[in-house]
Amino acid sequence: MAAILRASLLNQTEFERLSQPLRHAVFVQEQGIDAAIESDGKDAECRHYGLWYNERFVATARVSTGGKLGRMAVERTFRRQGLGAALVRQIIELEKSSGTPVIYLHAQAGAIEFYRTLGFTDKGERFIEAGIEHQAMKIVLNH
């Protein structure tokens, strides 16, 4: 039987119950980022997205009102299977249909090629954020 993928905008309950624990596991526990940095107080002004794989919540990301994609996290056992790409593609389509002109992000060095394959282009020089090398990137959705 084929896997069933479902991506959608999260409501507040789904965000608190599903997205926050996954982000904590990935950023704080795995990557060692300070919890105060991960929980930056900007969640209330963002749209939160999630991806389910056969009814299991496996990936999340947020987009700010200004179009910044961030806090992209995929459950460890589901990485490198195209699920993060599926979520980003769906986010691009949903944001495009809602009129967002550009999505930009700060990609961790290890994820730059991932975002390039999805159509994002580099913007400026690499920099350090939360102790990790990053690259600013963007994709134009609506001209």
UniProtKB/TrEMBL annotation:
It holds the Pfam family Acetyltransf_10. InterPro entries: Acyl_CoA_acyltransferase, GNAT_dom. Residues 5-142 form the N-acetyltransferase domain. It comes from the Bacteria. GO terms for molecular function: acyltransferase activity, transferring groups other than amino-acyl groups. This is N-acetyltransferase GCN5. It comes from Simiduia agarivorans (strain DSM 21679 / JCM 13881 / BCRC 17597 / SA1).
